[in-house]
Specification:
This protein is α/β, with parallel strands linked by helices. Helix content is about 50%, strand content about 10%. It has three domains: about 290 residues, 2-enoyl-CoA Hydratase, Chain A, domain 1, CATH 3.90.226; about 180 residues, NAD(P)-binding Rossmann-like Domain (Rossmann fold, 3-Layer(aba) Sandwich), CATH 3.40.50; about 210 residues, N-(1-d-carboxylethyl)-l-norvaline Dehydrogenase, domain 2, CATH 1.10.1040.50. Helix 12 runs antiparallel to helix 13.
């Protein structure tokens, strides 16, 4: 039996070992070739009398991350092609068969008559975990690196290779739904407690343990194929079932606002599937899966959150002719909230960190932040005391700038003030080597102007982290006018080392993310000034898919910061650059009422230990109060999304964004732009540039020039172009 992606051997006891080890890949993935070879193995094991059973394991440090989603995303274009050549019915038959093929393969394995066991170490997610679930026995290693799960919901899909049906038959329905909706990665002990695996063992014992199970006469039948099997939560239509399904539907609507077809399909597939025998249940799942694969939401999310995100993380924007940078030692100047967070993620990635602040007490306080974060992890069982000690040992907190000698990269994260930053830059460049790259974590000040204080501007770059650093995935890498390729390559290598997602933007006021998100916040302010009820503004934002409303978001970033940005903008660009209604609102909140947001417990919301609620006094600030029943809800949601998407389009025209992937990935990861759209440019493409321009013109006529479509959008509308058509990054790369 000739295999390329697997190694197959049989021991003296007649137990086969199938080792998944794809050549020239760091991670095993499910491809068409892998599926063909696995089918061949199942037939061989089932048809060879001397083979008692088979253990499936991996020859790599991880089991597998799942299916190659580019394989799935290619089905859509092929379907449309067949519609034209063969007709709708034939094309749909092809699409269903292709999308259901992995599920059918796993069911073939599960019912082949020979016991299969999965021995899993490392990452085992998505379709790979569905493979493990189709095996009759599952043992996983007790390593901190081992994680299992079904994260498909995070890219607009749901488990379509039997995951919804097998998980729902292994645990209580409510727990199964929660697992499928969250898409979390699950640790070994938790997986055992959830009944997802049979055993947890040291890595070096998992294959032997799986073999022992087969040798001892392990059953070749899954529990649901045994006569008399009962679902863990009893029948769907039973008193117990009715305690689950009405609340589940309500929770789904509350959490998704009906924006995510895949989440709804999970509910439907589990609800219908649990009322059927397994083979019919899998067919139901496959029908929903085929439908979801053809939705624009899935296409957009797969492109932005899997394909584009992966390409950017692997260095799509990195200068190809610059050798990889070996970053061992990082200097961070400024041990406040942002600097302390950067120190933590750097040390967590194994880098040595020099954390500098004005005095030892301030530097130690910054290091203490890492101690707190690691202690929290220990309390949750996610880390050990030794892990905390090792991480803290990598952080050297000091007020001495001389300690920065020998750093490969220095990141400045001090107060957002030109004079303060200029003084830090002067002190740093007195002690660092001539080849050290200097990065500023500024969120508002143009990089080119800051670089004027540095003797070697080609080695000066921006790295804009988002707060809190340890949770936010995005980093904006900002190119100044004179930033060189080596600085860019070093910054991207650093971002990759700390496991963040980079986008590369050119210098301008607010860069990319802040330009878009500040427009979103401003729109909330202006709606409030117009008399729209505050609760309605927040609820419409959530309805359209934003994680929080603009007023809540402003509270999080601090109202006084918004006030300072507004005043700085007016000083630099003149009175016409700001909206007087927004200025009046922020002046009242910040200057007159000292309502600064979450940081002092009062902003647009009032904060208490038990939670938060909109400040009742907001209504008193509104000169006009509109009746909620008379407000056009669709116009509100259009305004909240269009104002962000329009600004994203402007950044493309101004060449602040030069790769459309970065606008979409950056918007979703940086400020939560409605993920189901695939990002602001995908949102425009899906609507059509002509329709989007018409919407903006309608909004501009009623609400002002901030909605006026830019020249690029008008040109694209006339030509019927899309952003991913006109600015296709893969054509540019080719």
């Amino acid at each position: 039996m000739k295999l390329t992606n697997f190694r197959f051997e049989t021991d003296a006891d007649g137990i086969a070992l199938l080792t998944w080890d794809m050549p020239e890949r760091s991670m095993n993935v499910i491809t068409q070739d892998v599926m063909k070879e696995l089918a061949k193995v199942v037939e061989h094991v089932a048809g060879t009398e001397a083979i008692k059973g088979c253990v499936i394991t991996s020859g790599k440090d991880a089991f597998s991350g799942g299916a190659d989603l580019t394989m799935l995303s290619s089905l859509g274009p092929e379907y449309r092609k067949r519609v034209k050549s063969e007709g709708e019915e034939a094309a749909m038959r092809f699409f269903f068969d292709a999308s259901a093929s992995l599920s059918q393969l796993y069911r073939k394995l599960e019912t082949c008559g020979k016991p299969f066991a999965a021995a899993v170490h490392g990452t085992c997610l998505g379709g790979a975990f569905e493979l493990a679930l189709s095996c009759h026995y599952r043992v996983i290693s007790d390593s901190d690196k081992t994680r299992v799960g079904l994260p498909e919901i995070k890219v607009g899909l749901f488990p379509g290779a039997g995951g919804t049906q097998r998980v729902a038959r292994l645990m209580q329905t409510g727990d199964a739904l929660q697992m499928l909706f969250k898409g979390d990665q699950i640790k070994p002990a938790q997986a055992k407690a959830m009944n997802l695996v049979h055993a947890v063992a040291p890595r070096e014992e998992i294959v032997a343990k799986a073999r022992e199970w087969i040798k001892a006469g392990g059953s070749a039948k899954a529990p649901w194929d045994v006569e008399g099997f009962k679902n863990p939560s009893n029948k769907v239509h039973s008193p117990a079932g009715m305690m689950i399904w009405p609340p589940a539907n309500a929770i789904y609507r509350r959490e998704t606002q009906d924006n995510y077809p895949a989440a709804k399909a999970i509910l439907q597939a589990v609800y219908e599937g649990l009322q059927l025998p397994m083979d019919l249940a899998l067919r139901v799942e496959s029908r929903y899966f085929a439908h979801i694969l053809r939705t624009p939401e899935a296409a957009a999310m797969i492109r932005s959150l899997f394909i584009s995100k992966g390409e950017l993380e692997k260095g799509a924007r990195r200068p190809a002719d610059v050798p990889p940078t070996k970053i061992r030692r990082v200097g961070i100047v400024g041990a406040g909230f942002m600097g302390a967070g950067i120190a933590y993620v750097s040390a967590q990635a194994g880098l040595n960190v020099v954390l500098v602040d004005r005095d030892q007490e301030a530097a130690d306080k910054g290091k203490a932040y890492s101690h707190k974060l690691m202690s929290d992890q220990i309390m949750k069982g996610r880390a050990k005391t030794a892990d905390r000690d090792a991480l803290l040992a990598r952080i050297h907190a000091t007020p001495d700038y001389n300690a920065l000698k020998g750093c490969d990269l220095v990141v400045e994260a001090v107060f957002e003030d030109r004079a303060v930053k200029a003084e830090v830059i002067r002190k740093v460049q007195e002690v660092i080597g001539r080849r050290t790259i200097f990065a500023s974590n500024t969120s508002t000040l143009p990089i080119s102007s800051l670089a004027e204080n540095f003797a070697r501007p080609s080695q000066f770059i921006g790295v804009h982290f988002f707060s809190p650093v340890e949770k936010m995935l995005l980093v904006e890498v900002i190119m100044g006018r004179r930033t060189g390729d080596r600085a860019l390559a070093t910054a991207l290598d650093f971002v990759r080392a700390i496991r963040k997602t980079p986008i590369v933007v050119n210098d301008c006021r607010g860069f990319f993310a802040n330009r878009c998100v500040l427009n979103y916040i401003r729109e909330g302010h202006l709606m409030l000034a117009e008399g729209v009820p505050a609760a309605m503004i927040e609820n419409m934002a959530k309805k359209v898919g934003m994680p929080v409303g603009p007023l809540s978001l402003n509270d999080e970033v601090a109202l006084d910061l918004g006030w300072k940005i507004l005043q700085a903008t007016k000083k630099d660009l003149g009175e016409a650059s700001i909206d007087p209604r927004q200025e009046a609102l922020l002046k009242k909140m910040v200057v007159d009422l000292d309502r600064l947001g979450r940081k002092n417990g009062k902003g647009f919301y009032d904060y208490a230990p038990g939670g938060k609620m909109l400040w009742p006094g907001l209504a008193d600030l509104q000169k006009v109060k509109l009746d909620a029943d008379g407000i056009d809800r669709q116009e509100l949601v259009d305004r909240l999304l269009a104002v962000q998407a329009l600004e994203a389009a402007r950044t493309v025209e101004e060449k602040v964004i030069t790769d459309v992937r970065e606008a979409d990935v950056g918007a979703i990861l940086g400020f939560g732009f409605a993920p189901y759209t695939g990002g602001p440019l995908s949102y425009i493409d899906r609507m059509g540039t002509k329709a989007f321009v018409a919407l903006c013109e309608k909004l501009a006529a009623k609400h002002g020039d901030r909605f006026k479509p830019n020249k690029l959008l008008r040109s694209m509308a006339r030509k019927g172009e899309t952003f991913y058509g006109r600015f296709n990054p893969h054509k540019a790369a080719a």
